[in-house]
């Protein structure tokens, strides 16, 4: 799992950026560049998380890499297609500050995912009959 260190940084920083976006957006005393920079860092951070995970999946399942990456992309798109059904209501009812706090807290629950993937990823691959066993 040598490709995972960028995901460590990304998984820790992502909730921070969500809090930064939410708690600097509604206040006139905060300069407009602060939430704009937080959105930019959030976008870069998503790359830091997703790219190592894609690489890990492709390396663990080289024969089935196209199917694994397609399945991963499909699940991401399914979540992306379903989230507009509830996210507008969340931001409308909770307002930007508290909705971003809620999303940051939910994302905070998944901070450990890249670390667990590094720690237990080899054992998961050993249990799969489709994965490489020489990793």
TrEMBL record:
Key words of the record: Membrane, Transmembrane, Transmembrane helix
Entry membrane topology: Multi-pass membrane protein
Domain of life: Eukaryota
Entry's Gene Ontology cellular component terms: plasma membrane
Keyword match Transmembrane: yes
Chief localisation class: membrane
Stretches that traverse the bilayer: 7-24, 30-49, 69-92, 98-119
Organism: Aspergillus carbonarius (strain ITEM 5010)
UniProt GO molecular function: fluconazole transmembrane transporter activity
Compartment(s): Membrane
Source taxonomy: Eukaryota, Fungi, Dikarya, Ascomycota, Pezizomycotina
UniProt name for this protein: Major facilitator superfamily (MFS) profile domain-containing protein
PANTHER family: FLUCONAZOLE RESISTANCE PROTEIN 1 (PTHR23502:SF23), MAJOR FACILITATOR SUPERFAMILY (PTHR23502)
Biological process, per Gene Ontology: xenobiotic detoxification by transmembrane export across the plasma membrane
């Amino acid at each position: 799992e040598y490709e995972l260190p960028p995901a460590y940084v990304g998984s820790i920083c992502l909730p921070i950026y969500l809090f930064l976006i939410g708690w600097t957006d509604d206040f006139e005393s905060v300069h407009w560049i602060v939430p704009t920079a937080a959105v930019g860092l959030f976008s870069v951070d998503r790359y830091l998380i997703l790219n190592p995970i894609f690489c890990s999946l492709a390396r663990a399942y080289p024969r089935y890499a196209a199917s694994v990456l397609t399945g991963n992309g499909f699940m991401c798109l399914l979540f992306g297609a379903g989230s507009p059904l509830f996210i507008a209501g969340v931001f409308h009812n909770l307002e930007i500050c508290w909705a971003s706090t809620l999303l940051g807290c939910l994302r905070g629950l998944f901070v450990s995912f890249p670390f667990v993937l590094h720690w237990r990823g080899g054992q998961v691959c050993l249990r799969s009959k489709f994965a490489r066993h020489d990793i």
